[in-house]
């Protein structure tokens, strides 16, 4: 790592410690430090100090131009060096994380393809400079795309994922001169160490059985295994694909989606009361208690809210599948809320773009964002303590083996 000698004058120190605005003082200090670093970097690049005569000199300075940089302590002005017959390069302006770089790239692609709005053009010019070309966008994509692709296709065979949560969202993508709605499938797994991982993302024409089958086949080809429970919503194509590709694996219907479906079919005056009863069923300590509460709820509301009760009765077994697992895991495995929180982060950036210029930009932006989330999960606290799961799994396997022996 390069080391630089920085000097700070007395006037700047006085402003920092005695000035009315501490942020203004810090901003001035930061501005001074960064400008000194820029001068040190151009000296390194040219292999010569200003006015120095040496045979090893690589070029000559040609003044500087101002570049405003927005920081947490205010906007500062950097004096970026110019080099005669060359281009000065610095890492100071690479201030965006991968996800932010991908967002800017998507905006830039919209501009070069002639489909951006005036606001998007202004944003990209502010972030990237007044001019950029299609070749510039292509070069930047070539740097980021291999990183995202390597992450999205990394092998999964070196670890097991007992718990998997899947969900999809729809984005608008420009294809063949038309704007089309495309599904993006996302999978999250909890590994045997108790950490969450993003298993992968894939775009599809629709959220159909064929699209989900392709997604699950892809995950299995990369080595996904050891799955005991999959949580998802009740989309027909998704459920059929799960049952086809993960035979014998428990499917947990997302309780949040079920509750929403029930309340949508409930008369408004009864919604609070129905919500309390259904919540009691889903929070039951065991399946026997849940079934008893179900029967009581059906008796109370089957005439007042018949449609809602049919939805509850039909969805009961799938929504309470998680009760077969140890209690400490149920709260986090009974819904797809974990995936939907990721979707909210995606939506926050997608609202800026509105229409993606192509499918690759979707994978680039979402992949970069999910990569960063993956890194946070890996370096953070465990999502689940898996000790009780291993005990439950061992006991469950022993019971299954005993049952098979008796049948034989």
Automatic annotation (TrEMBL):
Transmembrane segments: none
Taxonomy, superkingdom: Bacteria
GO biological processes: DNA transposition
Any Pfam family matching the protein: Transposase_mut
Gene Ontology MF term list: DNA binding; transposase activity
Keyword list, A-Z: DNA recombination, DNA-binding, Transposable element, Transposition
Family listed: Belongs to the transposase mutator family.
Role: Required for the transposition of the insertion element.
Name of the molecule in the record: Mutator family transposase
